[in-house]
Write a structure and sequence with these properties.
By secondary structure, the chain is of the alpha/beta class. It has 18 helices and 23 strands. Helix 4 links the parallel strand 1 and strand 2. Helix 2 packs across helix 3, helix 6 runs antiparallel to helix 7 and helix 12 crosses helix 17. The longest helix has 21 residues. The N and C termini lie far apart (71 Å).
Length: 533
């Protein structure tokens, strides 16, 4: 390691980038304003909309998970529901790309996905925490089959251009050496009496005993080359059978090297509630959730290709004008007694919307994050056959930030799709300003630093920059503590005969759970208003 790497301070920008590497742009932004991001969902089970609405009509704008949730619950309660959806599919950011799909973006760039049958890529949500109870419950009720999604893989890689000569190292090595180094230093401080004022003698003995086990320290409380350390960080020669089967222990890096590498920063995220085991994904792609909602709601209730241009309301209802993209942009209108509006604020802020000043100001106050994901199909699953990596994430400080390995199809002889880049924030704008072809070239360049095989095994790919997706214009709403205090209540309040819903109307931004919970809250309050009237 160079002296520059040892002495270079960790900047706030580095920390935020590190947070964003794992959690995405929303968690990065939240970390800038508040450290209490990860919270368990407050979902307590299916809602009950008691009382007869007598067939009251509701127009739902947007067929993402918030819109689909609202439509399903209102339909089941006896409302007559219609959904207007900009895209030609339901799901919104709950999106899975497969072979044959066409991806159009602002600026006119078009990509045609060439993935083999059975291969897919989730450019939006890609994992479900176990404590997102609403998503889990709807998957159970709608028959969406889930399978484990791997967040942490000790065989995956960590990489920094500023550490270990730019050479990727295994997650297990960084974790073992960091735990060992910290345990040894704390043991030395304890034995030297530095903690005498804080701990009793018995407490100090218990602490030393725990440090020996936690850090794989030897009898002298040193973290050194040993079988105990190698069981965690890996062996130079693994245990085998027959002659010369004895294992050869590996040599840990120095405490100084492991600390100044900064790679230990990637270890903390698996302890965050949002990323703790167990995490899930739907079998066959994330959009299996949206498809299940559509089956239950009814495809006939959705008008696709509807670009909403104007929202008007009066004492008796809401009228929405939209361009029918399937009919050459012909202008049409829909009217209903009530409206649940789930259009992203990034788009809604540019529309002609009749609402009070408090809601209008709230809509205009929330910017949207930029993010991009790149999926690459590989001719063979070399990460499994060559490197024994089955699922999980490798991290890098290069612009692509990570490589995520599929948690499905283990040991299959065919192809596989890697999430080869997940960038966010200002760099996502720079990334997607490039042509799709140039994005692919650079992604391959960066990802091949961790896996050189990518250059020869590449077999097509696609990229999605959310701020260039016409129906979204961003990844998610970005709140600060200040804007929440001033605008959040006004954004969620019922304005006349319209109420908003979506991840932007939640304290769980950028997660599907936030979208569903916001919709449940919105329709509950709307139903109460209807019943009171």
């Amino acid at each position: 390691m160079t002296e520059d790497a040892r002495t270079q301070p960790r900047t706030r920008r580095d920390l935020l980038a590190l947070i964003g590497t794992v959690a995405g742009s929303t968690a990065m932004y939240q970390a800038m304003t508040s450290l209490g991001h990860a919270q368990e969902s407050d979902y307590r089970g299916p809602i009950r909309l008691n009382g007869d609405p007598r067939g009251a009509t509701v127009l739902v704008l947007g067929a993402g998970l918030a819109g689909l949730t609202a439509a399903l619950e209102l339909k089941n309660a006896g409302y007559r529901v219609r959904i207007l959806e900009y895209d030609t599919r339901a799901g919104g950011r709950c999106w899975t790309i497969r072979g044959g799909d066409r991806i159009e973006e602002l600026g006119g760039a078009v990509q045609q996905c060439t993935f083999d049958q059975g291969q897919y890529f989730n450019p939006g949500p890609w994992r479900i925490p176990f404590h997102h109870h609403a998503v889990m419950d709807y998957c159970r009720r709608l028959g969406v089959q889930l399978e484990p999604w791997i967040q942490v893989n000790h065989a995956a890689l960590m990489h920094s251009t500023r550490a270990f000569g730019g050479r990727p190292v295994q997650y297990r090595q960084v974790q073992a050496d960091y735990h060992g180094a910290v345990s040894e230093l704390l043991a030395k401080a304890t034995r030297a009496g530095a903690l005498d004022a804080d701990l009793t003698r018995e407490d100090r003995e218990i602490l030393l005993e725990s440090l020996r086990g936690f850090g794989a320290l030897d009898s002298n409380f040193r973290y050194t080359r040993s079988a105990a350390a190698s069981v965690r960080r890996g062996w130079d020669r693994r245990p085998g059978g027959g002659v010369d089967a004895a294992p050869v222990p590996s040599t840990p890096v120095s405490a100084s090297d492991v600390l100044t590498s900064r790679l230990w920063g990637n270890l903390v995220f698996s302890a965050s509630l949002d990323f703790q085991t167990t995490m899930f994904e739907p079998v066959g792609g994330m959009d299996m959730i949206a498809r299940a909602f559509v089956r239950e709601v009814g495809e006939d209730l959705i008008t696709y290709g509807a670009r909403v241009t104007q929202i008007r309301q009066d004492a008796n209802g809401v009228e929405v004008a939209f361009e029918d993209r399937r009919a050459g942009g012909a202008v049409r209108t829909e009217r209903a007694a009530w409206c649940v509006n789930t259009i992203p604020l990034s788009i809604l802020a540019q529309m002609d919307v009749q609402c009070g000043a408090p809601m209008a100001n709230a809509i205009a106050a929330v910017p949207y994050a930029a993010s991009i994901k790149v999926g690459l199909q590989m001719k063979r699953r070399f990460w499994e056959t060559d490197h024994h990596i089955y699922g999980g994430i490798s991290y890098t400080d290069l612009p692509n930030r990570m490589i995520s390995y599929p948690s499905t199809g283990y040991l299959s002889p065919g192809k596989g799709v890697l999430l080869a880049a997940y960038a966010f924030g200002p760099f996502a704008f720079e990334y997607t300003a490039l042509s799709p072809e140039e994005r692919m070239r650079r992604t391959v360049e960066w990802a091949s630093v961790l896996h050189p095989e990518i250059r020869t095994e590449l077999d097509g790919g696609v990229s999605v920059g959310w701020h260039r997706v016409p129906g979204a214009l961003g990844c998610n709403g970005m709140w600060t503590d200040a804007t929440r205090r001033e605008h959040y209540a006004n954004l969620c309040a019922i304005d006349g005969r319209m109420v908003l819903a979506g991840e932007h109307c939640s304290y769980i931004p950028a997660w599907q759970e936030g979208s569903i919970l916001s919709a449940l809250d919105a329709v509950t309050r709307l139903h109460q208003r209807v019943m009171a009237g």
